[in-house]
Amino acid sequence: MQAETEREAGGNKGVSDKQIRLKISSPNVLNITLVDLPGITKVPVGDQPSDIEARIRTMIMSYIKHETCIILAVTPANSDLATSVALQMATAADPAGLRTIGVITKLDIMDRGTDARNFLLGKVVPLRLGYNGIVNRSQEMVRPRDTFWEYMVEISDKRMKCKFCGEVISGTITRAKYHLAKMPNRDVKPCPNVPEVVFASAETVMEEAEMKKQKLIEGSSSITACNPTGVVDHANIFGIGSGGTSKTTGQPKIKTLVKKEKELTNIKMVTAMIDNNLSFNLLRSASFK
Ligand SMILES: [Zn+2]
To answer: Which segments constitute the BED-type domain (predicted)?
Structure first.
């Protein structure tokens, strides 16, 4: 749809009288044509002509004037319903209100203390086919629930109980993942009963998150400035000094370090790399896992 609109009307909010037709065939659908008309634009933007409002009004009227068509007059509830342009135009085309359905959207974000009750009851602009109130899903509702909730029982907002060991964890689901991955994090204890497969997937997810964080640190140019100790022990990290090769034996496994130490190690590693002109790809090598 986006591509077709741009092809016809350009990429800069231009308008066109030409229709984009999408045909859906199925034995189970009504024989109906749904025409999605543009909203009224008051102030021209982008490539829109100065008479855009009049042009869109003419276009809309050419469709809704037909006696056989049903008008869906869509108005957001957080605007002044009494001055709704959609309802005004619908009333012009259908003065008796016989073939107009009123649709009131965004009921969830109306101003505090106001309601659309009288409108929905048809007391303001009476319509034979009535009104429908709509609340669209918010972005938050669209985002899928974290799969690790499967292993938790939600007690209340920000409190959950581990299905394997009964441990109560407060905070976000991320804290539960620390628990299942047996990674110490603040007061989160490692799970004693987590099945191997759940442990492995939690560990993978947490390591990926750690990698992402590491990438962010790599991308930061002010990294040396935020080294909290001001001391970089190169030898400790790379084994540099014993022949100049980067030996990593004796380096503690990152996984076993607590979060703070991990971050410190990350900073030290990157600082050392910058100091020694080492390629950052080293970070991705197996020896640093
Ligand atoms: Zn547990």
So the answer is: 143-198
- Asked if 279 and 238 touch (Cβ cutoff 8 Å), the reply is no
Q: What is the 84 CA–ligand 1 centroid distance (Å)?
A: 55
Segment 68-73 shows an average pLDDT of 92
3-state SS, residue 6: helix
At 120, list the tokens. Answer: 């929905």
Cα of 202 vs centre of ligand 1, distance in Å, is 12
Residue 122 has which token pair? 């048809």
Encoded amino acid at 66, one letter: H
Q: How far is ligand 1, taken at its centre, from the CA of residue 259, in Å?
A: 20
Q: How far apart are CA 25 and CA 33, in angstroms?
A: 12
Residue partners of 262: CB distance under 8 A and separation at least 6: 210, 254
Contact status, residue 151 vs residue 162, Cβ threshold 8 Å: yes
Q: Computed over its alpha carbons, how large is the radius of gyration of the chain?
A: 31
Q: How far is the CA of 151 from the centre of ligand 1 (A)?
A: 9
Residue 109 CB partners (closer than 8 Å, separation 6+): 77, 78
Contact between residue 164 and residue 194 where contact means Cβ atoms under 8 Å apart: yes
pLDDT of 24-69, one tens digit each?
A: 888 887 788 888 888 887 777 777 878 888 888 998 999 999 999 9
Cβ neighbours for 259, distance < 8 A, ≥ 6 positions apart:
183, 184, 185
Q: How far is the CA of 92 from the centre of ligand 1 (A)?
A: 65
Judged by average pLDDT, the poorest of 75-79, 208-212, 251-255 is 251-255
State in Å: Cα 140 to ligand 1 middle: 27
| pLDDT tens by residue, 106-148 | 888 887 788 888 888 988 888 999 999 888 776 666 667 888 9
| Domains by residue range for the chain, with CATH | 2-139 (3.40.50.300), 147-284 (no CATH)
CA of 26 to the centre of ligand 1 (A): 49
